[in-house]
Amino acid sequence: MDQIIVRGNGPLTGEIPIAGAKNACLTLMPATLLTDQPLTLTNAPRLSDIRTMTALLQSLGAEVASLQDGQVLALSSHALTSHRADYDIVRKMRASILVLGPMLARDGRAEVSLPGGCAIGARPVDLHLKAFEAMGADLDLRDGYVHARAPHGGLRGAVVDFPLVSVGATENALMAATLARGTTVLKNAAREPEIVDLARCLRAMGAQIEGEGTGTITVQGVYALHGATHPVVTDRIELGTYMLAPAICGGEVECLGGRIDLLSAFCEKLDEAGISVTETARGITVARRNGIRAVDVTTEPFPGFPTDLQAQFMALMCVAEGTSVLEETIFENRFMHAPELTRMGARIEVHGGHATVTGVDALRGAPVMATDLRASVSLILAGLAAEGQTTVSRVYHLDRGYEHVVRKLRGVGAHIERVKED
Ligand SMILES: CC(=O)N[C@H]1[C@@H](OP(=O)(O)OP(=O)(O)OC[C@H]2O[C@@H](n3ccc(=O)[nH]c3=O)[C@H](O)[C@@H]2O)O[C@H](CO)[C@@H](O)[C@@H]1O
Ligand SMILES: C=C(OP(=O)(O)O)C(=O)O
What we know:
single chain; about 425 residues; alpha/beta; UDP-n-acetylglucosamine1-carboxyvinyl-transferase, Chain; four-stranded mixed beta sheet; binds uridine-diphosphate-N-acetylglucosamine; binds phosphoenolpyruvate
């Protein structure tokens, strides 16, 4: 297994290109199952999660070609040869549940392994299932699988009022609704940029959708969808992560392809912390010239502060002046990076959904372990701010969501390398 070695750094300067969004690509890829015509995705990120989704789609009979060094995905689902998403793949990646809606809508049947809990929380899929039931599906939970059947004549449009905001349930229901008979109204829908990107792609495929990016999405079902070519939206979480590198180390870095509207709540918090954030013609420039001020953060669905940037922001607060409180409201167990950061000299106390972080003058390098995707990169960011060497193990978590992390950070002057574990 590989490890990442980081040595504490001075200021960082230069440019970092931001990739297409993992979380958009993972819902755009299953959209291929809605049509027998080709779907081409450009600006795709090169990540292990994308390879996992590729394997899952192929296991269902889809063809997926990775072109131009993985940045273009050519997908085609002429006919599905299987309707079963196997546990062996689903357990690796929860986004696998996103094949359920498209398969059910197109062929009236699907069997998908229940994803089960994961490190950051229980993460049930009840809201996905309730949406399909409202659309007339018959669901049976057996042997760890959801066995789903659409009624004779296919899914029918319905009003689905989500009791809480779920990105995945909104995506799954939205895809299914495109081929349902009649009108579907998704209330309390997620408003994340990845939902807007999915709706745009589906519309390019012939779907009739209104209201994406608001809490109410209305879909008029159509008889069939057709092929399309769609560019994957910028990865706002990768963007926010790299914006934090000069914030922690000092210096000035331009994140190419970045847009403030993808991350306005996060940018406001950086501003409060004393970090300069400027939109440029090519992206976002982040600079820090003075100390870092402690600021409180509460994670919320979009447009609030993203849970997927909480761990990385905590790394910044570890070296801020003063005390900050980070409140995690989306996942019940998303502070596993805190004990690892503490090993590096951070002062953090976790009480339920709150972490109180008191800034220290300097962190010290240490061997640390990545527990999940965003935790892993928070340890790298902390390592950049620490005196001495930090060794991050279990970096397979990192590979799920960050392409070429060593190359990108070295490009702005960071001391970082990837090595094989002894
Ligand atoms: C692949 C992908 O896009 N992943 C993102 C997606 O995950 P994901 O789509 O899994 O997250 P959700 O928005 O669904 O989860 C939000 C909350 O709702 C709960 N819930 C969700 C579904 C359900 O059926 N029942 C239920 O109770 C979850 O446990 C969680 O507490 O949005 C999260 C919240 O922004 C991000 O952290 C993930 O990076
Ligand atoms: C939690 C994340 O991903 P997933 O939903 O795929 O586990 C993430 O991207 O931070």
